[in-house]
Amino acid sequence: MARTTDGDGTPVPQRLLAAATRLFADRGYDRTSVQEIVEAAGVTKGALYHYFGSKDDLLHEVYARMLRVQQERLDAFADADAPVERRLRDAAADVVVTTIANLDDAAIFFRSMHHLSPEKLKQVRAERRRYHERFRALVEEGQEAGVFSSATPADLVVDYHFGSVHHLSTWYRPDGPLTPRQVADHLADLLLRALRP
């Protein structure tokens, strides 16, 4: 049976994901072999296949772990006892901060999503749709309450914001002039300005 941790207690699945993320970010998904991943993680191929059925499963998990965190946080913002404008702004800023915190994951996913199997791609699209629908529901709630303008359809507002988020990995640099929080605040403010009645 595969060991679940290494000498310092790091679980094997986390080691595999860390190694895969590093290699996918540096070399690209298609130019990274399973052998390179297991060597970088210090495990056997058997260990990889014990936890992940394939390299495809690793790619899916790189993105899924970020989306799980973002979904959990969005649900908490959406369910909070606060005005809809505050909940939407918090959610809009948070997706920026969490994307920047996981910039390699985001870059890998958007560069390599087309390598996923049809089944995994369908699953990812369903997970993303769930996130976008929850976000859109906040926009619609504010529009129905008259807090936000309904001149622009909620779907377009959501696509506008997430278009910016999805491109963060192409231009954001940790050593650049803006902190993650500053970028998040600017993009959230732009979104709210676009919704002003």
UniProtKB/TrEMBL annotation:
The keyword Repressor applies. GO terms for biological process: negative regulation of DNA-templated transcription. Keywords: DNA-binding, Repressor, Transcription, Transcription regulation. SUPFAM superfamilies: Homeodomain-like, Tetracyclin repressor-like, C-terminal domain. It comes from the Bacteria. One of its GO terms (molecular function) is transcription cis-regulatory region binding. Signal peptide: none annotated. Residues 10-70 form the HTH tetR-type domain. InterPro entries: DNA-bd_HTH_TetR-type_CS, Homeodomain-like_sf, HTH-type_TetR-like_transc_reg, HTH_TetR, KstR2_TetR_C, Tet_transcr_reg_TetR-rel_C_sf. Residues 33-52 bind DNA. This is HTH tetR-type domain-containing protein. It comes from Streptomyces longispororuber.
